[in-house]
Amino acid sequence: MLHVQNLTVAFTVYERGLAQKRLTVITDLDVEVQAGEVVAIVGASGSGKSLLAHAILGILPHNADLGGTMTFEGEALTPARKEALRGKQIVLVPQSVASLDPLMRVGAQVQRAAQLSGQRSRAADQAVDQAFRRYSLPETTRQRYPFQLSGGMARRVLVSTAVVGSAKLVIADEPTPGLHPQIVAETLGHLRELADEGCGVLLITHDIEAALQIADRVAVFYAGTTVEMALASDFAHGATALRHPYTKALWRALPQNEFIALAGTQPNPDALPDGCLFADRCPLVTAACRVARPESRSLRGGLVRCIHAEG
Amino acid sequence: MSQSSTTPATTTLSSSGKVARIYPWQMNRRQKTVLTIGLCLGFFALALLGGRIIGDAGLSTNLPSRNQAPSLAHPFGTDWLGRDMLTRTLHGLSLSLWVGLLAATFSAVIGAALGTIAATIGGWVDTLLTWCIDVFFSLPHLVLLIMIAFAVGGGTTGVIIAVACTHWTGLARIIRAEVLQLRSAPYVQLAAQFGRSPTWIACEHMLPHLVPQFLVGLILLFPHAILHEAGLTFIGIGLSPHLPAIGIILAESMRYLATGYWWLAAMPGAALLIAVKLFDVLGEHVRALIDPKTRQS
Amino acid sequence: MQIASSILRFTARKLLRLLILLGAVAVFSFVLINLSPIDPVNAYIGADMLLISPEQRALIATRWGLDQPMTVRFARWAEQILQGNLGVSIIFNQPVATVIADRFSTSLALMATAWILSGAIGFVLGILAGMREGSLIDRAIRLYAYTLASSPTFWVALLLLIIFSVSLKWAPFCCASPPGLLPDQVTITQRLQHLILPAITLSIVGVANMALHTRQKLIEVLQSEYALFARAQGESIWGLVQNHGIRNVALPAITLQGAALSELFGGAVLAEQVFSYPGLGQATVQAAIRSDVPLLLGIVFFSAIFVFVGNTLADLAYQVIDPRIRIGGGAQ
Amino acid sequence: MRRMRTLLLGLIIGLLWLSACGTPTAPAPTQTTTTASQPTTAPVAPATTRSAPQQLILAIGGESEDGYDPTLGWGRYGSPLFQSTLLQRNEQLQLVNDLATDYTISADKLVWTINIRQDAKFSDGKPVTSEDVAYTFTKAQESGGKTDVTTLDKAVVTGPYQVELHLKQPQITFVQRLATLGIVPKHAHGPDYAQKPIGSGPYTLVSWEKGKQLIVEANPLYYGTQPQIKRLVFLFVDSEGDGAFIAAKAGQVQVASVPPSLAVQQIPNMRLVDVKSVDNRGIMFPYVADEGKKTPTGYPIGNNVTADRAIRQAINYVIDRKALVQGVLEGYGSPAYGPVSGLAWEQPQATIEDTNLATAKQLLADGGWQAGSDGVLVKDGLKAAFTLIYPASDATRQALALSAADMVRPLGITINVEGKGWDDIEKLMHSNAILFGWGSHDQTEMYNLYHSSAAGQGFYNTGYYANQSIDSTLDLALGAPSEQEAIAFWQKAQWDGTNGFTTKGDAAWAWLVNLDHTYFVDQCLDIGTPQIEPHGHGWPITAGIVNWKWTCK
Question: Based on the domain organization, do C218 and C274 belong to the same domain?
Answer without folding.
Answer: yes
